[in-house]
Write a structure and sequence with these properties.
alpha+beta, single chain, 4-stranded mixed sheet, Glutaredoxin
Length: about 375
């Protein structure tokens, strides 16, 4: 009887030790047969070695990972101190990883891990091309080549950032969006570094917080958002600016001067989203010209956001039309943070903002109705 009790106690302790959320890794590394593989975990902003795993004669191993809570965690496989595979593990995940002798690794069984590989592959490609452009220049490079290379680097940066914003919008509940936010081409060239990017950081944080409220990665993101917001607040000198109830916009105008929507606080504002490639948008500007001329001196202002990627053509059109109001463009087109901030799904789109900073009208394109609303707000 005593033996039976001891045996039952041992089984209970064994079961207790094995309780808790787990994930399983089944991996085959073609170039790591009878080798040691190091499993590492990303904790906040540092890597931590979890275990060293021995592969068999075929380079295969099975491993059960004990997880903390229900939040996702980033894990990496290292061979000879070099990362060979990455994954995101959540409770009950069963991940199949194949690391061939040449080419990228393959991950199956985890949607988040697949997305992580997609994100890392896209950035590695863009980063490699950026590095190649940077290293192609020297002190002897002709000025014309330097300018052309600079143009190519700018286009690469803008194109990648546009795709990154599109990815964030399409995967709002994925923890991989936090990875995208902190990508860097170099220490001097983060993908997201402009003050206006605070809108994107906040959007990602707001999407992930309900899903993973206690995740250390989300906590780190919240800290980053707080820092960005403080920087933005400082630049706005909020001590001297009235509180606004609409999303802030900070974008360059045709002269490259950064213009903030909050500059117009206290005025009646028409916030317009348009494209120079649409003739009907240009025609609507004619109506706005009449309205602006009639009511500008009484307190009407227009802040017009172009969603054109071709900034030179946009600037040329603005100048040829003689547009007198604030006209801005960040070059990101439909992936502009301004589009995310105001949930713009089509153009033209327009918002009417009163002197108190409240949005009182949307998409009022009838000239008479718009004039009536503006006159009443003034």
């Amino acid at each position: 009887m005593k033996r039976l009790i001891l045996w039952a106690t041992a089984l209970f302790l064994l079961a207790s030790c094995d309780s808790g959320p787990v994930a399983r890794i089944h991996a085959t590394l073609e170039n790591a047969k009878d080798a040691k593989v190091v499993l590492q975990k990303l904790n906040y902003n540092r890597m931590m070695a979890v275990d060293t795993i021995q592969t068999d004669a075929s380079g295969h191993f099975n491993y059960k990972v004990k997880l903390t809570g229900n939040d996702p965690y980033f894990y990496y496989l290292y061979v000879d101190e070099k990362p060979v595979a990455s994954m995101i593990l959540r409770p009950s995940d069963e991940v199949e990883i194949t690391v061939p002798s040449s080419g990228p690794f393959v991950v199956e069984g985890s949607e988040e891990s697949t997305l992580l590989q997609q994100v890392n592959t896209a950035f590695a490609d863009a980063s490699g091309r950026m590095t190649a452009l940077m290293t192609s220049l020297s002190e002897d490079t002709p000025e014309a080549v330097v300018k052309e290379t600079g143009r190519q680097m700018s286009k690469l940066y803008v194109d990648y950032k546009r795709d990154a914003i599109k990815y964030i919008v399409q995967h709002p509940k994925s923890i991989t969006t936090a990875v995208v936010l902190f990508q860097k081409f170099s220490d001097e060239l983060p993908v997201f570094a402009q003050q206006s990017d605070a809108v994107i950081f906040r959007s990602v944080l707001d999407s992930l917080t309900p899903v993973y409220p206690k995740s250390e990665y989300v906590v780190a993101l919240r800290d980053a958002v707080d820092v960005l917001q403080r920087d933005l607040d400082l630049s706005m000198r909020l001590g001297d600016v009235a509180v606004i109830s609409y999303p802030e916009l900070t974008m360059p105008d045709v002269d490259g001067q950064v213009r903030m929507l909050s500059e117009l606080q206290g005025k009646v504002i028409l916030l317009s989203f348009w494209s120079v490639g649409q003739n009907d948008h240009k025609m609507f500007n004619v109506d706005l010209m009449d309205l602006y001329a009639k009511y500008h001196d009484k307190g009407l202002e227009i802040y017009q956001v172009s969603l054109d990627v071709d900034k030179p053509t946009w600037a040329s059109t603005v100048r040829s039309q003689g547009i007198p109001w604030i006209s801005v463009n960040d070059g990101y087109g439909a992936q502009s943070p301004a589009v995310v901030a105001y949930n713009v799904t089509q153009i033209p789109t327009m918002f009417v903002i009163n002197r108190e900073g409240d949005i009182i009208g949307t998409d009022v394109f009838d000239k008479d109705a718009l004039e009536q609303m503006v006159r009443k707000a003034l």
